[in-house]
Write a structure and sequence with these properties.
By secondary structure, the chain is an all-alpha fold. Helices cover about 70% and strands about 0% of the residues. The protein is built from 13 helices and no strands.
Length: about 290
């Protein structure tokens, strides 16, 4: 059931990418916002396992997948090219801050069934973004006359192939951390192992606040390998950690790696893709 949200996002992303490039950023983001809100509100009416659960998870996944790709494509349009990586890094802090809620999720309600009210409440915050979207000027889209086909070759150039490999490496590492880090720490005797998300999130946020200018200064492509190496070092630390300190320090390293990995890879995706396919490229990157 949880995976069905991801399936919804993956199903929507090809269409969302084309819509971002052909219809526009703002209309696509509005549609994604409404889907997300509908899915969250629907979760508030879940009382038992049924097809309704699968449906609401799918719709919410469609919405969040569309928003993830759409917002970063929109931001890439608005930020000056010379500060693109810095801008993506700072904007992405908004997506990292909710990770700090993970260790405290169990304490949101004394009765787990009361958590259903959290989802409709969250939808209000999602819907509150709609007036702000209307205020942002729609970027001028680049349309090549007579070019109405989705060209796969635009995403498989020799300049983009290493970016997709880096993207896959980073995404797989994050997925492994999300699925197994707290489980491994708990199995090793760590109490409240969800605490790992605190150094992870803080490491990613602080490194972007303090060092957001570094990738553009040294060249974003020169930061890809060091950023992935830092994440890999953190993963090795998690592998050999035998105490709370080891796990927390390793999570911090993974967070620092995340803080740099995502913006430098996203910046490379944007910079190496033809501008008329930027929305589709961000959708593909998000899907990976």
């Amino acid at each position: 059931v949880m995976a069905f949200g991801g399936i919804g996002g993956l199903t929507a992303l090809p269409f969302a990418g084309i819509a971002l490039d052909r219809v526009g950023r703002r209309p696509t983001l509005i549609a994604g916002t409404l889907c997300t809100a509908v899915g969250l509100i629907g979760l508030g009416f879940v009382h038992e396992m049924s097809l309704w659960v699968w449906f609401t998870r799918f719709i919410a996944g469609v919405g969040t997948g569309t928003l993830f790709a759409g917002y970063f494509a929109f931001v890439a349009d608005l930020i000056p090219e010379t500060r693109r990586t810095e801008g993506i890094a700072l904007f992405g802090i908004s997506g990292l801050m909710p990770l700090l809620m993970n260790p405290f999720a169990e304490g949101l309600a004394p009765d787990p069934s009361a958590l259903r009210y959290v989802f409709p409440a969250t939808s209000l915050g999602v819907l509150a973004s709609l007036p702000l979207l209307v205020l942002i000027k729609e970027p001028v889209r680049v349309l090549i006359k007579g070019d109405r086909r989705f060209r796969l070759s635009a995403f498989w150039s020799h300049r983009l192939r290493p970016v997709w490999i880096a993207n896959m490496t980073f995404a797989t590492s994050v997925a492994v951390f999300m699925a197994f880090s707290a489980v491994a720490a708990a199995a090793s005797g760590m109490e409240y192992s969800a605490r790992l998300w605190i150094p992870y999130a803080l490491g990613a946020i602080v490194v972007r606040l303090v060092g957001a200018k570094l990738p553009d200064y040294v060249g974003p492509s020169n930061m890809v390998v060091p950023a992935i190496a830092i994440y890999a070092l953190g993963m090795l630390g998690l592998t050999f950690a035998d105490g709370d300190v080891g796990f927390l320090v390793s999570a911090l390293l993974c967070g620092v790696g995340h803080g740099y990995c995502f913006p430098v890879i996203a910046s490379q995706v944007v910079g190496r893709t033809p501008k008329q396919y930027r929305g589709s490229a961000m959708a593909l990157s998000t899907g990976i």
